[in-house]
Amino acid sequence: MTRLFFIAGEPSGDALGAALIAGLKELDPGLEIHGVGGPLMQAEGLESLFPMDELSVMGIAEVLPRYAALMRRIKECAAEVVRLSPDALVTIDSPDFCLRVARRVKAQSHVRTVHYVAPTVWAWRPGRAARMAEAVDQVLALFPFEPPYMEAAGMRCDFVGHPVVAQPRASDQEARAFRDRHGIAADAALCLVLPGSRAGEVDRLAPVFGTALQTVASQHPGLRVVVPTTAGVAERVAGLTAAWPGAPVLIDPRADGTAAAAAKRAAFAAADLALAASGTVSLELAASETPMVIAYDMNWLSRQIIWRMVRLDTVTLVNIVSETRAVPEFLGEACQPGPIAAALCLLLEDPAYRAPQIEAMRVTMERLGQGGEAPGRRAARAVLDGLATARRG
């Protein structure tokens, strides 16, 4: 029987953890699980030590008032791991919390430690891998190019696939039904607009995106716009997009999250193109083969600091995974309405401009594991193999 202790601190980690636990139960029916997780992990049988929501904070302004409480939870988790002495501690993303627990556990025991989601040392702050190796034995990586970075620091690293390849996708029928429901003609250009999930992002990007869309709409009078959003910024997005062209349809998860998720999938399938802030949303768009333009900016000080630390000439994951620069980016000072609008119009008007993107998306999905074993099951196999190898060693 395998005994594991899990820690997830955010909804995305809860989803990864639930898929991992499901895979482990298939491979090891006698699995015993403990730890901290959200509703998805609890549905797989985890009794959470305390509500996961207590850990879902980010940013200095949010963390400082909760610092003492978070430190107590770190100590509590570490003490419980040491007491239970599981075969492994599996921490999922949320590195600021999870790796502090792992360090405490390592200082007091010989429990094996596994961290799910590698830090982006390939993009910036490469020294994080060496510091992580002090507390982590094995890393489960979402991207195929990550293992060499982790292995060079002394950790075992298994590429297990990205969860985007296992996410449900809308059918053509669902896409048509979405257009019909919102009065969007079959031949109308439909643009997804995703200005971010945090207040600061939305405040900076929405005015730029709106101005760019005015230009696109002037050249494509039938343009329609759909704006998927998140509960935390839905009201803000509604206000900022009310005057946009294209009679924007807001997908708001506050009333019914399940219905909003289905509507978002249908919108991705129905859209002809997208304008999005940088982030993992580019992979969601790639999964639905929706051509995109990526644009992003931050406050002046952050821009000066971050741009000097970035080690790549692109931030878009589709470009990075496919080893192309097929997705156009407008970042920092280049995040201006005119060039963004021009790129959007090219996507609408020129098949030769879209074609390299579509191919890059297909390559990206293939490299992330599409068509193979589900990421959760691959991750489960890697955890069990790591345990078996450690026992033999």
TrEMBL record:
<keyword id="KW-0328">Glycosyltransferase</keyword>
<protein>
    <recommendedName>
        <fullName>Lipid-A-disaccharide synthase</fullName>
        <ecNumber>2.4.1.182</ecNumber>
    </recommendedName>
</protein>
<comment type="function">
    <text>Condensation of UDP-2,3-diacylglucosamine and 2,3-diacylglucosamine-1-phosphate to form lipid A disaccharide, a precursor of lipid A, a phosphorylated glycolipid that anchors the lipopolysaccharide to the outer membrane of the cell.</text>
</comment>
<dbReference type="InterPro" id="IPR003835">
    <property type="entry name" value="Glyco_trans_19"/>
</dbReference>
<keyword id="KW-0441">Lipid A biosynthesis</keyword>
<comment type="pathway">
    <text>Bacterial outer membrane biogenesis; LPS lipid A biosynthesis.</text>
</comment>
<keyword id="KW-0444">Lipid biosynthesis</keyword>
<comment type="similarity">
    <text>Belongs to the LpxB family.</text>
</comment>
<dbReference type="Pfam" id="PF02684">
    <property type="entry name" value="LpxB"/>
</dbReference>
<keyword id="KW-0808">Transferase</keyword>
<keyword id="KW-0443">Lipid metabolism</keyword>
